[in-house]
Amino acid sequence: MEKLKIGVLLSGSGTNLQAIIDQIAEGLPVEIVKVISSRPDAYGIERAKAAGIPVRALNRTVYEDRDAADALIVEELKAVGAEYVVMAGYMRMVTPVMLNAFPDRVVNLHPALLPSFKGAHGISDAFDAGVKVTGVTVHLANEEYDKGPIIAQEPVRIEEDDTLETLEAKIHAVEHELYPRVLGIIAEGRMTVGEDRRVHIAPAV
Question: For residue 1, is pLDDT > 80?
Answer without folding.
Answer: no
